[in-house]
Predict the 3D structure of the following.
Amino acid sequence: MQKIGTPEGTKTVLSKYPFILKKKYGQNFLIDAHVLSKIIEAANITKDDCVLEIGPGIGSVTEQLLEHAGEVISVEIDKELIPILNDQFCFFDNFTLINEDFLKLNIKKVLENKTNIKVVANLPYYITTPIIMALLESELPFINITVMVQKEVADRIIALPGTKEYGAISASIAYYAKTRLVANVPMHSFIPRPSINSAVIELSLYKTAPVELIDKEIFFKVIKAAFSQRRKTILNSLSNNFDIEKDKLKKILEISKIGINIRGETLGTSEFATLSNLICSTK
Ligand code: SAM
């Protein structure tokens, strides 16, 4: 049988149902079998896994997931896609379809009692970052998160300290996961063709946090401060964002061996942790 994730498969499904694509939901469907197998391979999907899929669309990725995983839970916002998906996959007893906005969903409840959970998604670009952060902040024991995102966003997520792309999002995600680029994906891998390039990245979540924090909120506040004014020294950025005397901050930067003239963009997870823990201790 023709696979959905091919140009012919997608065209067949779209012509079979009276479905109108919705730009507002970022509906660009994947039609590249090579990219699909890269996603499955990168996520290392096995029959022991329960996969949470966000935005199944007409089911290009879902079809592959159902073949390789033990269980698939897909969350789709567009109610018009629900009958199409149910039609395609009604023979699978390991498939659960939820018609909901992912950002409003109680994922803890949905994934209650599930083990070996992996997340796979070709994300709608307009809410990529909120979705990734909601997944990470949920602190659910995801093994990994394999997602297709805008190429530019992928570059920022996987960026290392000191590089042009490194920013608050790279530093925040680095606390939760090791990141890597899986594949660059050209525009012609989708119907309809988007106007930007994409990339698949894999976030492999740490089982235990890479650093010990006194207060996680302060840690993320330090990251935010460090990137709030690019090209400013860390001393000035912290001084503008924390209600702490400059002399005290100088002392903290001295003890941490970071130095007052360093720019925030060059700091990594352990330095942000040291700084935030010292800030907590002075309070
Ligand atoms: N997975 C399919 C594929 O690869 O062909 C579709 C990917 S398409 C880029 C994004 C999908 O996410 C669309 O089906 C869209 O309706 C859905 N979507 C958009 N916003 C969503 C949200 N907040 N919650 C759940 N699904 C959403």
